[in-house]
Amino acid sequence: MIKVIMIISNRPACGQTTVAVNLASGLSRKGYRVLIGDTGNNEKLRHWLGIDRQDTGTKAAKPYLEDKQAKIFSSSRTGARHLSC
């Protein structure tokens, strides 16, 4: 069964990305398959994971999110075996 964990806050800069990356990393180390994404437009997740701007895609989720900007990463350069972003 798929389980979804969302880190949500209405305040900017209160640690959502830090919590999400550390939670995903910890679950991955325990052997869980993890998918992590960021719908914000500040690109903090990209920086945390060390992904270059030119490697990111921004249009894949557009039909689903309509007016929201999305960053989709399909690379496994995170150092954790089951962590995708």
UniProtKB/TrEMBL annotation:
* Source domain of life: Bacteria
Which SUPFAM superfamilies does this one have?
Answer: P-loop containing nucleoside triphosphate hydrolases
**What Pfam families does the entry give?**
AAA_31 (PF13614)
What protein name is recorded for this chain?
A: Putative partition-related protein
AAA domain location is 3-61
